[in-house]
Hints:
It is built from 17 helices and 17 strands.
Amino acid sequence: MAPPASETAAVVDGGDGQQQRQAGGFGQTITGIIRIAVFCYFASKFFSPKQKPSDPSKPSHLMSNLFQRGEPMDMWFYLSEHEKFNDFGNEGALIWHETNLPYAVWKPESTRTFSMTYYPSEALKNNGSLYAHVFFARSGFPIDPSDPEYQPLNCFGRTHPVATYLPKRKADKKKSLLGNPKDSDESNVEVEEVDGKDSDLKDEGPVEWVSYWKPNVTINLVDDFTRYPQHGVPPNIDPYLLVEPSTVNYYPTVFFNEFWLLRDKLILINETVSELPFNLEVSPISMTKWQLFQQIDQSFQIHRSYGSMLDDESDELKRVFLEGNPYLLGVTMFVSMLHSVFDFLAFKNDIQFWNKNKSMEGLSAKSVVLNFICQFIIFLYLLDNDTSWMILASSGVGVCIEFWKIGKAMRIEVDRSGMIPRLRFHDRESYASNKTKEYDDIAIKFLSYVLLLLVVGFSIYSLAYERHKSWYSWILSSLTSCVYMFGFIMMCPQLFINYKLKSVAHLPWRQMTYKFLNTIIDDLFAFVIKMPMLHRLSVFRDDVIFLIYLYQRWVYPVDKTRVNEFGFGGEDESVDTKKISDQEDDKKTN
């Protein structure tokens, strides 16, 4: 593909909060997209619609390629503001001309590049259209139908738009809640919307569209010599196949490859633009690679339709492959497959741990409540920012599980004495009758002071220097940012309890190990995937906490008499094991 243009205008970003949500499930996205792409590719190969039985008296015609491998061709590249082109005598419209271009030959001379600076017309600056018309012909033959030597079997062409149209927001709804005039001016800046699927554009009248320039145009000639049945062309190939009606054979397939053209490389065309970079390339492409590009694009569309991928997440994934180290990408793809396995195992052991838990001795009940509050804040933040339903469903399930944990860690009663029933939470006897509650209260007391100062300080900063849609949005975004930055404080009460008890015996190490393996994978993605520095730092907080747990396990002796998370003591387990072994010895003796 043509090299990316350096003079490109970046599209306005949607905010750090949106990037944080995009980076959250990127490991699963990479695995899912690759899996769907490979599945669709082989499904199209093996399960494509079969040709209906034909009449034996009328044998089916097999279409073949009109050109031979290695046959030299000439190419003409025109730019025109009209979709249909026949002005072949206009030298000003001819941008690029190549001769003796071998077809479907994988040699350096098969790839040609050309770079230039295009000066847009006044019509193009005012949302006008511009099309690229590329024509190929056997060397020495003309492409102009008015030429006496013109032969339709020797030439073919394809048209493709160079300027694309994208909707834009009329105004950014975010504003300075304190009435800062500078921020109010910034809120009126029009922001480009990538796919035009933003809910803010609903019920606001007609949508205004603006044109964007494609700085890179890649023309691929598909290396395809398959003999297709006349009425049995695969559906993924049929739209691109150009059939010559007299011979019922097909011309070489021309594919305008925009797979690696990222959205932030598009350049806004307006009255202030005087020149535009234009990089062209013509080269062959294999049938497998062409189909793979199509299947991956199709998988992107499937993910968007199901709400499992945001609009610009596909570009971020492509950027990983363009800018990432190939060895690091290979490791990332491998560990991303393991991420889902570890995530499932951690989830299973977490449910199993709390389901079998009979005693809260040595465990922080208030940390469970704080975790629920944090999950609920994140859920409200995602709901306020119009997140896809799949991410909302996943977050909602997490909130329900955290609330279920509260029921296992505390005793919940429904108070019906008033007009409105209320929930009352009471400490379990195993938690309140020992030093665990005392140490938990001390830890929460001091940590809440620190957390309160951080939340208040960050909220004031966000109110003074950032823009928000409403006061409600400011509260949610401030709390969510504090959860990202200071969420590790919620894990500290358990560390404090272990420190005061001088023991970490029978902590759920299996569950913690799976979660720690997942944090290692998240650390890897933090270096590979483009994300805000705030979110990149937040992925390391679990590592610090787990390292402290390892240090406590090394420093403190293992107290086998302490009741574990399942309500059993270590000595009881050893006694039971000894009894079982004694019974087996007796059986062998008898």
